[in-house]
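not sure who needs this but someone in the group chat was asking about VOC family protein from Gehongia tenuis so here u go. i didnt clean anything up, its just raw.
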Amino acid sequence: MVTGIIHVAYNAKDMEASVNFYCDKLGFTRHVDINHKDGSPWIVYLRVPSAIPQYLELFYGQQERPASDLNPWTTVGYNHLCLSVDDIEETCATLKSKGVVLDKEPNLGDDGNYQAWIHDPDGNRIELMQMMPNSMQYSREKNLP
């Protein structure tokens, strides 16, 4: 059975801009670069800063329409990546100090968690979430057998 999520994968138009964003701004670490058999670059794995191994997988050389051109509410497929944070206000202040523009300032969502929104260099939407003890998600966890 499924025991977790190992990675999420994106196509990157500008690999170095994407790596710099996720590593320098969000604190991921460059874990491993994988090349094709001919030696050309293929994938960069970035490790999420967590105790459990989780990765963001970035593929080289994509030149198609950026994610920001897609309507996430009417397009089938990808919508957004949600990252867990310990302190939404502190995280947002740190990101702003690193030049990251917040698409939406921290607020309390309808599910009872604090959230803010940013995007990566390719326009992929990223939700930052501080899970709260009385949120819908945590309340449901407490009621599971």
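also The first helix runs from residue 15 to 25. if thats useful
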